[in-house]
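Question (not urgent): is this output format expected?
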Amino acid sequence: MSSAFSNFSIHKPQNFSGVPFVPYEAELVAMINAIWLCTYYGKRWRVENNIAENVDFFNLNSVQSPVIVQVNFDIAMTLIANSLYKILARKLRWFEQAAPKTISRKFINIESQINITAHEFIIQYKKNTYNPMIKDWINKLDEIKTPWIGNRKLVYEFL
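Got this back:
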């Protein structure tokens, strides 16, 4: 009993006439172009995502001044802030690839209280899921003093 698919082999791709399939030069070029396109677009996609982060989190679409010098300053400050967020993300375990919005929400905009004494700035963090990560990172730092405010020491406490 013959079927329409009896000429095809599972192991060797064939065309409809039953002859084994051999890619032509044009098809090889198309495959190479597809690989190049995927690689190129992957890189471009990362750049586009970075721009989208800046527009979304740092409100890059709404610069503060119509004056060109001020607009350039706003963009420069945005890029500096973005870089600082990325540096902080690299220092936090499991958050190396996190977006600035995530870092801000989980590590920057958290409830805390600052008490100022004669010799110290005491920063008290309220209970938070990510406090162990913050504590781990802070414990790796050297003692921090603020020379511009009478050499007061920064002290971190976790409640």
